[in-house]
Task: inverse folding
């Protein structure tokens, strides 16, 4: 039987490390794979596999292409974004691939949440404080 496979985008982040800590007692049941932009980052050595990928914000097209390749090879049960930039990139990728098992909402919602001005305008339009 294949283990449950999770893919953490930017796994060396605090969120990525917290996910590893939360799963510490279940690692025999779960393979945790990560992406990272720095192959020498020590935190990435705690994962079952690590893929080097461009930084999300510095090259969105290259990042998306690399993430598509990683998802196709790893076939994760769930892709978890670990940084704010990753949420937007992942949501945009899921618009292209609706069957992508990503832990994110729509790209439009992700963009609003990632931009303080857009969030303020959204709040005003909807009568939110």
Result:
């Amino acid at each position: 039987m294949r283990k449950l496979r999770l893919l953490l985008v930017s796994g060396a982040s605090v969120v990525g490390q917290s996910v590893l800590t939360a799963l510490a007692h279940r690692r025999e049941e779960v393979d945790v794979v990560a992406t990272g932009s720095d192959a020498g980052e020590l935190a990435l050595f705690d994962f079952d596999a690590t893929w080097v990928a461009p930084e999300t914000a510095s090259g969105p097209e290259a990042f998306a292409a690399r993430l598509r390749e990683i998802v196709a090879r790893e076939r994760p049960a769930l892709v978890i974004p670990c940084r704010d930039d990753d949420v937007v990139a992942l949501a945009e990728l899921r618009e292209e691939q609706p069957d992508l098992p990503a832990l994110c909402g729509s790209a439009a919602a992700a963009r609003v949440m990632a931009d303080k001005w857009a969030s303020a305008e959204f709040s005003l339009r909807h009568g939110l404080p």
The CA atoms of residues 79 and 102 lie 5 Å apart. The mean pLDDT is 91.
